[in-house]
Amino acid sequence: MKYCDFNGCGTKIDRGTYCEEHKRSRKSVMQKRKKRNIFHHNNKQFYNSKQWKDIRSFVYQRESGCCQKCKRFVFGRQAHVHHVIPVKEDPTLRLEPNNLMLLCPKCHTEEENKEKGKVFPSYFEKR
After folding, report:
1. Higher pLDDT, 26 or 102
2. What is the CA radius of gyration of the chain?
3. What is the mean predicted confidence (pLDDT) over 70-78?
4. Is residue 78 within 8 Å of 49, Cβ to Cβ?
5. Contact 111, 120 (CB under 8 A)
6. What one-character-per-residue DSSP string does 1-20 give?
7. 57-83 average pLDDT score
8. Which residue has better confidence, 121 or 97?
C-alpha cells in the first residue's frame, strides 16, 4: 500500500499512482494528446529532412541572416524560411530557392496571414 501522489491527498492505494478521485479519465488523456498534436502537420517529415535543412541554410547564407522584409538580423530559431507559394499549393516548389525567403517572426506572421486579413504583430512586441 502507498499514498496517492496527488498533492495533499491521504488516500491509500494498492497500485498505480493516483486514487480513483485523482486518476485522469481516458477521455481527458486523449484530449490532452490531441492538443499536443495540434502543431504537428503532414509536412513534419519534410521539415526534418537533410534536403530541407541544406536549402534552409543556403537561404540563410544567401540573405546574410537578414529578414528580407524589414532587414533586421535574425539568428537561430528566429530565422524563419517562408515559402512564397505554399507547399500545399505546389509541392514541386518546396525546395526551390527562388520560392523561399528569410523572415523574422513578426514579418513571417504578417506574410502568412496577409491573404487571411489577420495579423497579430503585438504578440511579438517585447513587454
Report:
1. 102
2. 22
3. 91
4. no
5. no
6. -EE--STT---EESSSSS-T
7. 93
8. 97
